[in-house]
Specification:
The protein is about 0% helix and about 50% strand. With about 120 residues, it is an all-beta fold.
Length: about 120
C-alpha cells in the first residue's frame, strides 16, 4: 500500500502560479503511475494530468494543457503539479492518485486527502 499526502494549495490571484506536491509513504513511488484530479464545488471529480513511472510520458486535460506541468522525483518519493497562468475556473480541491495514467477515476487504487486551491479574479 501507499499513502499519499498533498500540499501546496492556497489562495492566489488569476495569472499567478502555484506548485502542488504529493508525497508518498509506505511504498516507493516509482512503483506507480500517478495522476492529479480536481473537484470543484457541485461538480464531479475530473482528470487533470498523469505521468508514467519514469516520467517520460505525461498526459493532460485540454483545460490545463500549456499551463500545468506534472513531474515526479522518484528519489524524493514525490509528484508535483506546477500550475501557471491560473484561472478562477481552476478553483477546486486537488487530489493526487496512484495506480494509473487513465482519465478514469476508477482506474486509480490510492488517493490523497486533497488540497484546496482557490483562484480569485
Amino acid at each position: 500500500q501507499v499513502q499519499l499526502v498533498e500540499s501546496g494549495g492556497g489562495l492566489v490571484q488569476a495569472g499567478d502560479s502555484l506548485r502542488l506536491s504529493c508525497a508518498a509513504s509506505g511504498r516507493t513511488l516509482s512503483s506507480y503511475r500517478m495522476g492529479w484530479f480536481r473537484q470543484a464545488p457541485g461538480k464531479e471529480r475530473e482528470f487533470v494530468a498523469a505521468i508514467t513511472w519514469s516520467g517520460v510520458s505525461t498526459y493532460y486535460a485540454d483545460s490545463v494543457t500549456g499551463r500545468f506541468t506534472i513531474s515526479r522525483d522518484n528519489a524524493a518519493n514525490t509528484v508535483y503539479l506546477q500550475m501557471n497562468n491560473m484561472k478562477p475556473e481552476d478553483t477546486a480541491v486537488y487530489y493526487c492518485a496512484a495506480g494509473s495514467t487513465s482519465r478514469n477515476i476508477a482506474a486509480y487504487s490510492y488517493w490523497g486527502q486533497g488540497t484546496q486551491v482557490t483562484v480569485s479574479s
